[in-house]
Amino acid sequence: MITFTNSGLYCAAGDFYIDPWKPVTRAVITHAHSDHARLGSRYYLCENATVPLLQLRLGQDINVQGIAYNEAIYFNGVKVTLHPAGHIIGSAQIRLEKDGEVWVVSGDYKLENDGLSSPFEPVKCHTFITESTFGLPIYRWAPQEEIFSGIGQWVDDNRQSGKASVLLAYSLGKAQRVMQHLQHKTEKFLVHGAIANTHEALVHNGWKLPPIEHITPDTPKSAFPNSIIIAPPSADVSWMKKFSPYALGICSGWMTVRGNMRRQNADAGFALSDHADWPGLLSAVKATGAEKVYVTHGFSSVFARYLHEQGIAAEEVVTAYGEEENGNIVNN
What we know:
Blueprint: E1 3-4, E2 9-11, E3 16-18, E4 26-28, E5 43-47, H1 51-58, E6 64-67, E7 73-75, E8 78-84, E9 92-98, E10 101-105, E11 127-132, H2 144-160, E12 164-168, H3 174-182, E13 189-191, H4 193-204, E14 212-214, E15 228-231, H5 237-240, E16 246-251, H6 258-263, E17 268-270, H7 278-288, E18 292-298, H8 300-309, E19 313-316
Parallel strand pairs: 3-4, 4-5, 5-6, 10-11, 11-18, 12-15, 12-16, 13-14, 13-15, 16-17, 18-19
Antiparallel strand pairs: 1-2, 2-3, 7-8, 8-9, 9-10
Protein name: Putative mRNA 3-end processing factor
Organism: Chitinophaga jiangningensis
GO molecular function, one term: RNA endonuclease activity
């Protein structure tokens, strides 16, 4: 039902693309991260909560339609429904059905309920297209309560040393998750402009998020000591100098490999990801009951080979996903 083209995942029967990386006439979007939602298409379909995020990132004048999870829409006889992916707010798996055949495109997903995103729901299908960002056995996440407890202790230690705590977290998804779970540690978070813009869009559309203060050139230096500062991975080191003395922590699944923390010149690394780990990927694939699995971005060849060894027909597919914020390793 889906073919893999130079523009993206194409459903010829319905004449639409899913997360195209080139401009197309009709695009169905799994979520608002920049590697899955790109400018230039004539029409976009997404989950309701993703609409303001697409407008924030692609422009208010885009032609976008939002639908609820499990609400059906038809394109030339192809039934399309969206189902929670648990990746970020508004993220969805795309289910396609025609003549009794069912395909599911997962986009990006995680199985642990983060307290903000609608929790991942496995969808039965004949063919499943899965990501494999962390498709190696070394990637196994600790429960998020344990991770956030460690981050909280790190913040306390920094305060005892008279330092601000700067946490790098992707501006859409990770930043909101971090603030949600650390709000008991501060009256308000100080945040980078990219995070402030996302925060404003979400609050304007009814999401209840912790209080923030947008850091500007006018923010007094007296605001920084002992504070919790949230910045995207793209934040420049020169921008952070104003916070001195501070400690730098990175929230990313890539922090499982300690060398990544050293290469980023960070003081601490926390293996917090909005993607499924190795056991999560395997659990998700099994829960679909799919007879055929296509594996995209990440360790796709390794994961596809492992599935094949387990008796599941699996194949690696090359896509243009997995390069959020210029592919910086701390995004995931």
